[in-house]
Amino acid sequence: MRNFSKSKLLALRQCPKRLWLEIHRPALRQDSAATQASFQVGHQVGDIAHRIYDPQGLGSLIDVQREGFNAAFARSKALLQTHQPIFEAGFCAAGALAFADVMLPVPEPEQGQAGGHNAWRMVEVKSTTSVKGYHRDDAAIQAFIARAAGVRLQGISLAHIDNTWVYPGGEDYRGLLVEADLTDEAFARTEEVVSWIAQAQQTAASAAEPDIQTGAQCSEPYACGFADYCNRNAPKTEFPVQWLPRIGKRAATLAEEGVIDLRNVPDDRLNDKQRRVKAHTLANTTYFDAEGAAAVLADYGQLACFLDFESIQFAVPIWKGTRPYQQNVFQFSLHTLTASGELAHCEFLDLSGNDPAEPLAQALIQACGASGPIYVYSAFESTRIRELAERFAHLSAALRAIRARIVDSLPVATEHYYHPSQQGSWSLKVVLPAVVPELRYDTLDGVKDGGMAMDAYMEAMHPDTAAERKKQIELQLLAYCKLDTYATVRLWQVFAGRTDWLL
User: Fold this and answer.
1) What is the spatial distance between Cα 470 and Cα 323, in angstroms, rounded to a whole number?
2) CATH classification of the domain holding 448
3) Sign of the dihedral through C-alpha 287, 292, 297, 298
4) How far lies 334's CA from each of 233, 368, 412, in Å?
5) 157 contacts 124 by C-beta, under 8 angstroms
6) Can you give the pTM of this predicted structure?
7) Same domain, yes or no, for 131 and 240?
């Protein structure tokens, strides 16, 4: 009988075909960069959990990669007779195996000081900010396997990140994780887990690949690495329904009805914007309500600034006063347009590795001046400025004044402009080449989008990064952010009807 890991059973829960492919054709799996990044975050949070649950460093870590499965199971069994925390303890029973993130000994008062700690509490550590549905399956599997292996398990909890917690600095991460007790629920699902193991045995034993069509399970609860393989024979269409803005899960509903092409979607099932996208996509024409766009922008005058931020998130904060997954701004670009049509530019970028927030806020206040609209593209910059004002009381009034001048040009674009090349998106990356064809992000060197900017920043701030490479990254980040604000300038120029200006 095959022993299935917890991850294999969770793969089954997502899609039996995924489990079959992981067993019979694992080479087809192609995890995305986002999936790989989530693995890295999970490892980082796991390392912090070791420090939180074992502050004195007396616990033991099982390294199955180094020790091998049999040795790991044997050492885990031996360590269960001790009084100290165990990390990655392994259990194998009833056709399944699992490794527990944290095992904590539970004192049993009736045995007194002379007695041993052979009752345990399990903690599964996740990098999410709440308990997800699939975490409950995870806990049920973990609890079942441990108990089937003879562990006296008194409870199981899920520890997840508290994104309201503020890092006090000094490597003190107490408070980063908050626990949810899943004991009663997990213990009550024994029969379910037994049925999952039986289904997994049956699925794995089959010589034939399960005949399951692609659907929501390909990305929920997490992205499947076999999606490209499974989609290889999916019906192709020239005008996918997914190009309709905010179509969301209704695309799957339409697909179940056999509707995968815009041409076959009834207009009475679409809102005004979706009908507009459909009509202009099929006709290959541009929609531009120039009069309406100009009317919106006419109230703000000609003296203006154009602002863009770049930021980075850390699941585990590294700077005092910041929260998990907070957007930490490390760069800005600002173009300033004078009444005479002259364009000036200034920028800020801190690659030192120190918290850039306060010096960035100070530089922003100086750069923005005292009056005039500040154009952005989306609500992102406004939100970040509000957060900076909340964090730095001595700069709060000046930052609030800047925020009051923000004008978001994204709604102007979404309501008054659409080009078929946008394919239902109003991202700046697709709107810019549609409106101003000579400007493109794919011609940039190195950094071409926000995700690449975050990766580049992480590399540049690392102490082992060579000075030459750091300078290269600096130039790439500056060029990328500058294009973002210049793009906002050019969009304003077109939407405001000031194409007579040479910017």
Assistant:
1) 27
2) 3.30.420.10
3) positive
4) 47, 8, 20
5) yes
6) 0.89
7) no
Which phi and psi (to 5°) does residue 103 adopt? -120, 125
Q: Where are the beta strands (DSSP E) in 299-391?
A: 304-312, 328-337, 343-349, 374-376
Full residue range of the structural domain in which residue 179 is found = 4-205
User: Does one domain contain both 178 and 320?
Assistant: no
- Reading the chain (503 residues) residue by residue, the pLDDT tens digits are 799 999 999 999 999 999 999 999 999 999 988 888 888 999 999 999 999 999 999 999 999 999 999 999 999 999 999 989 999 999 999 999 999 999 999 987 654 444 445 899 999 999 999 999 999 999 999 999 999 999 999 999 999 999 999 999 999 999 999 999 999 999 999 999 999 999 999 999 999 999 998 888 999 998 999 999 998 887 788 999 999 999 888 887 888 788 889 999 999 999 999 999 999 999 999 999 999 999 999 888 778 999 999 999 999 999 999 999 999 999 999 999 887 778 999 999 999 999 999 999 999 999 999 889 999 999 999 999 999 999 999 999 999 999 999 999 999 999 999 999 999 999 999 999 999 999 889 889 999 999 999 999 999 999 999 999 999 999 999 999 999 999 999 999 999 988 766 55
Whole-angstrom distance, CA of residue 307 vs CA of residue 247: 30
